[in-house]
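Escalated from tier 1: calcium ion holo job.
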Amino acid sequence: MILMVTGYITRCQDYFWKAFSPCKGGLLFDRTTHSSCECLALAANASYGLAALTSAWLQSSLRRMDLFQKVWPVKRGKAVAERQVGRCPALDAAPNSTCIEGLRIAQDLKHACEKDELALVFQPIVELRTGRIVEVEALLRWQHPRFGLLSPDSFIPIAEETGAISEIGEWVIKCACKQLRAWRANLREASELRMSINVSVVQLRDENFVERALATIKREGVAASSLTFEVTESKMMTQPDAMIARIAKLRSAGLRIAVDDFGIGYSSLISVARMPLNTLKIDRDFTRRLGRSLRDDAVTRCMINLGQDLGLQVIAEGVESLDHLSILHSLRCEYAQGYLFSRPLSADCFERLLLQMPCFEDVIKAVYSEREAA
Ligand SMILES: [Ca+2]
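Tier 2 regenerated the structure:
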């Protein structure tokens, strides 16, 4: 049987890629070798080969190939050398540890929800005029049994590549809604609190996402108007027409839409103006640069003015110092989020913070009056 194989490799105990051996014009795959290997994951860049397979074995192999094809580009390092064997590319080096970790994460992600390893933490968004917490961003964490506590950067790209993002994203929406409903029901201070949820563009590309998300929100008994979906700028601007249509559907159901990490995605201002947005979240990189030079301040001022001129709420992310706050005040930014106010907190700790409302009135007043005196 001639078999098109677009990505197959087996990790052997000794990290030597025994499964393939170069043969004339192609690669010879030996099933006996394969079956003695530890199949943590399978991978890579063989183009075709010759193999005699049972259909069941073939099916399971193809499933694994599919996984690796999705995961490999995420973690592929330059240390993994490729060389051409005839017209067929082949791996001739062991996978580095980052790659193996990536594969392990991809495998474990499939069960992270059901094993109850995921958790949400919460970071306040503060209205600078009053010092009140008006919104809270739900941030995902994964307590991995082997790698410890992981932040989304280390596994969301893999979840997006493998499709696990769909289940994880739905879990996030469900849990965030549950938490918001509990706070709103039990705390007077949270009666108008809003919840902001990060949504991957990969979720938005799914044509059923909007219906599923709205069904989840309804099931959890939360008003859609109390939620914001945050979508990263750089990714939002791909397939703009499809994005606009889905975002418009969410908006018409009452949800608010924020463009996340604004300023680093190099999108055109026209596409920002076209998107039916409610909020711009200015990326923390710009906030960090505040006060370093007039030019840096001018760029941030432009973004704040742009957002406000478009009628959007503007939130500065990554506010970490009183200097940041003072400059943001002078730039007339109205909302902020960052370590100056609070790190992401567990639900219990965030609840204690809410009870101190208006939590940040004093610190903001002190900064503002100092600036006005100067
Ligand atoms: Ca965010």
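The pocket of calcium ion is lined by residues 137, 198, 230, 260 (CB under 6 Å).
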